[in-house]
Structure formats: structure tokens, C-alpha cells
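Researcher: Predict the fold of Two-component system cell cycle response regulator DivK.
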Amino acid sequence: MSKKVMIVEDNELNLKLFTDLLRAHQFVVEGVRDGRLALEQARTFAPDLIIMDIQLPHVSGIDLIEAMQKDVALSPIPVLAVTAYAGKGDEDRIMAAGAKGYLSKPVSVMTFLEAVRGIVG
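Model: C-alpha cells for Two-component system cell cycle response regulator DivK follow.
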């Protein structure tokens, strides 16, 4: 059975790239462009992994990860965080919030796929 991945990414080009890449490797993918809808969509879609952009409009990806960790239904879902704006200490804050992995954009295809497979198999 194919693994389900939800991508929370406001950038249309990045969302398409991640979606196409994962679908080409037999993942079932759901994209969410508005972080405010991410938690509700995660409950409905029930993904095996969430790929979370950290720099989202309206809500921080870190805040979403923290909210997931406090939610009984969502806390078991691993999160792979991705961001283009990695500052000093960002990775530590992201991992402390509950992410299982962290990638800095731009991400190479192989690095991205290895990170996804490392989390969901």
C-alpha cells in the first residue's frame, strides 16, 4: 500500500515539484497551500508524513508542528520541515518543536527522497 504524504507549502512551484517527485515514486500526495487549513486537512487525509514549510503566511510552520504535538490524533504523524530561510538556531528550534527531520531549501532530489524514505520507509 502506498504511503500518504501531505505537503504544506505556500509556494506553488515548490508544491508542484515535491508533489510530482513523490507521486513519481508511488506516494499518494495531498497539497495544502494555506497553513491555517493544515491541521484540519491532516485529520481528514491521515498522512503517514507531513512535509512542512516553515515560512508560511498567516501561521508559522513551527507553530503548526507544536500544535500537532499537542493533538492526540496528529502527534503520531512525523513531520519533515523544509525552509529556505534557515538562520542560526532555526534547526534546533524546529527539531525541539517536534519535527523528525529538517531540510534547507533548495533541496536536491536525492536528499529530499532520502529524507522522506528515512522517515516513512
